[in-house]
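Appendix B, Record 12. Input sequence as logged:
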Amino acid sequence: MITDERLAALHAYTRKHSVNWPLYVVIRLAFVPFFLIYFRLSRAGRAHARHVKGGLIVAANHRSFLDPFVVGACLPWRRPMNYVAKVELFQKPLQAWFLSRLGAFPIRRGESDEESMETARMVVERGGTLCIFPEGTRIRRGSLANPKRGVGRIALQTGAPVLPTAVIGTEHVRRGWRIRPRKVKVRCGKAMTFPQSEEPSQALAVTVTSRIWPNVLLQWEDLGGLPPMRRAAVIGAGSWGTAIAVLLARGGLEVQLGARTDLTDTQRETIQGLWANWSVRRSATALRHQEHGARNGRFDGAGGTTFARPNAGGQRPRTDRIGRTTLQRRWARAPKSRHRRAGRQQRRPTESARED
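Logged structural output:
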C-alpha cells in the first residue's frame, strides 16, 4: 500500500511543476513518430485544441493504457498534459516517479477523492491541460459506458473550456506483453464552455456532464465506434422479460414489450410506471397475476407483459419459475409427488410374488 506521505508528495509535484520538461520532450520526440508509423495514428480536429488559451480540460473515453499518450500526441507541444491514473500504478517507487514526471497523478477509484479533485482544479486554474476519463475505468469492448459527474464539477469550478475527444483502436494494441501494430484513431471536437461556479451542486455537475458526454459520443461514432443501445424490445418472456426490462429501463433505455394479452391504455401506463421504479417491482408481479385469468392468447405487439396460459386437459400450466406465489409452487409440485408415490407402489412386490 502507498503511504499518505507519498501520495501528498505526488500531488504536490503535479500542482507545482506539471511535468518534467526534459523527460517530456524526450518521450514525445520518441513516441509521436512511433505512433504515426507503427500504429498509423490518425489525428483529427487538432485545430480545436490549438486555438484555446489558458486552462483546458480534455474529456475522453478510456479503452487502453495508451490513451493518455495518444491523446497527448494530438495536443500542441506547448501543452504538456496532466491526467489521472489509478493509485495502484503508483505503488512501485520507480514507476511512480516516472508517471508523475510525465503528468500523471493518483486517484482513488470508487470513492470521493477530494485531494485528487483539488489537484485537478489547481492544474486547470494555473493554465495547464487536464485529461480526465469520465467513464472512471477502461471499457475495452462494446460501446462507451455512462460517465461520472467529476468532469462536470471541474468544468464548473474552473470555467475552463472542455475538449470532447474520442479514441478508438488502442484496445486492440496490447495482448499480454506484445504491442501489436493496430490502427489507432483520435478525434477532437470543438471546445465547450460553461459558466463558473465555485461550489456547484451534484445535480448541476450531473447536468453539465450530460451535456459534455454526447459530444464525446459524437466523436466516437464518427470514428466508427459502436453506438450505445438506445431502444430495446422484450417479446413473450414472462417474468424473465419483466426483470430484463426493468434492468434495461434503469440503464436509460427505451423499452418496448410485446404481450399475448389485450391490455388497456391505463394498464399499460401503470406497468410502464412500475418498471421505472425498481422498488415497486413486486407490485408489477402482482398486477400480472391479477390478469392471469383474463387471457385470450392473442399477441397484440403493444406494451405490456407476457402471461402464460394453462394447458388443456388440466395439465400443469406453463407458468414461469419467477414470480409464482406460494400456492402456485405447491400446486405445481403436487402432481410430481403423486406420480412418485404411484411409481413406488408399482415397484413394491406383492405378497404372491414374495411367496414365489
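The mean pLDDT is 78.
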